[in-house]
């Protein structure tokens, strides 16, 4: 990892600003409460800003597979451009659309739901 790369940490203030983008049907099914969704989204932001594989996501953000699943399910709402525009426009979140975890490696692919 490039040590000069800033890893973004989602603050509660930024969360309050972006939480409106997450539709109720996405956040109330298996992702039961706003605290869980905040933690999951924080993990997704960490992965996007760190340029590290999903499996490297710190445990403080929950299970990486849950974060990845949430990201995949949320793609159909097209909310990520708005989210990253509001929190930090320098984060290259677009690569998340083309990565999926596989074993200990991250494969690049065209994976759309």
Give a description of the structure.
The protein is mainly alpha-helical and 113 residues long. The protein has one domain (12-108). It is built from five helices and two strands. The chain has helices at residues 12-18, 24-27, 34-50, 64-74, 80-87, and strands spanning 99-102, 105-108. Strands 1-2 form a two-stranded antiparallel sheet. Strand 1 (99-102) and strand 2 form a beta hairpin. Helix 3 (34-50) crosses helix 4. The longest helix has 17 residues, at 34-50. 24% of the residues are buried.
What characteristics describe this protein?
113 residues, mainly alpha, two-stranded antiparallel sheet, 2 strands
In short:
By secondary structure, the protein is mainly α. About 40% of the residues lie in helices and about 5% in strands.
How does the SSE layout of this entry go?
Elements (H helix, E strand, L loop, with lengths): L11 H7 L5 H4 L6 H17 L13 H11 L5 H8 L11 E4 L2 E4 L5
Antiparallel strand pairs: 1-2
N-to-C series of helices and strands = HHHHHEE
Through-space gap between termini:
30 Å
Helix content: 40-55%
**Which residues form runs of ≥5 with pLDDT under 50?**
103-113
Radius of gyration of CA atoms, rounded to a whole number: 13 Å
Please list the strands of the largest sheet in the order they lie side by side.
1-2
Query: Averaged pLDDT, please?
Result: 80
Number of helices, where a helix is a run of at least 4 consecutive DSSP H or I residues: 5
Rough outline: globular
Helix/strand/pairing category: mainly alpha
**Total DSSP E strands:** 2
């Amino acid at each position: 990892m490039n040590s000069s790369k800033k890893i973004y940490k989602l603050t509660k203030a930024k969360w309050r600003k972006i939480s409106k983008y997450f539709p109720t049907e996405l956040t109330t099914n298996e992702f039961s409460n706003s605290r869980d969704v905040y933690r999951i989204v924080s993990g997704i932001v960490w992965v996007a800003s760190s340029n590290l594989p999903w499996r490297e996501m710190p445990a403080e953000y929950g299970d990486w597979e849950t974060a990845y699943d949430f990201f995949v399910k949320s793609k159909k709402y097209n909310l990520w451009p708005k989210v990253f525009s509001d929190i930090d426009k320098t984060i290259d979140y677009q690569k998340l659309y083309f990565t999926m975890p596989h074993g200990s490696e991250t494969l690049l692919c065209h994976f759309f739901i």
